[in-house]
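Extended Data, panel c. Modelled sequence:
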Amino acid sequence: MFISMGECSRYSSHLSKRVVEESFNSLKYMFTQWALPAYDGVKRVEGGIALKRLRQIVTKAVVAKGKKRTEERVTLSPTNKPTSILGCWVINHTCSAKRVGKFVEVTGKFDVNVWYAYSNHSKTAVFSETIHYKDKVKLHYREGEISVGDDVRVRVIQEPNCIEAVISSCGTKFEIVVEREVVVEVMGETTICISVHPLDYEEDWSLNDESSSSSSSSSSSSSSSSSSDGEGRYVLESSSFPDERPR
């Protein structure tokens, strides 16, 4: 039995059409059985009891943040002409912050101490100076710029630290490079939404009463205590000396 090319083509076309129709019917069944009821349920929940159980709470939260790292070159003039620098450290750092427009202004100070040799390495001394600084940190808002208060917090990530200390080209001054990094946070009022589920009954808490007892007697050296095992049964524990048994 031979099948012509035309009949084979008509059979393939009929088979493809049947597969497409079966796939479409399957999708239609899934949509009518699952998708539509779920969508109707969402609409009923949005317009019914669920919205009545929503509450808005006004609270304070972080609404803007900013971060800045600074490397500052400081020039110091010691009383003696230095020959070499033996050490440098930065201490006593304090800072405060306030909001100024779209920025937070961080004001602070720290002490720089330089240990150096002079008089052709025959003597040493320590030179100290207080350095004041003022940094402007740009704010970044999560949900666009809003009107916020002046409650600003500053957190120091990197305390002022000396990363370079050299004698200047003129030979009479110190050039100190100090790095520091701060993060600022601006607090403001925001609204959060919660779902309230009223309880029509009292919650059942499984609480086991714990008790303990102890007794002592001058005529005998014995003691007893009551304890509970993991299954709620009480076990009596006692101990006494072998020579002095209670009568």
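The CA atoms of residues 53 and 196 lie 5 Å apart. This feature is highlighted in the accompanying rendering.
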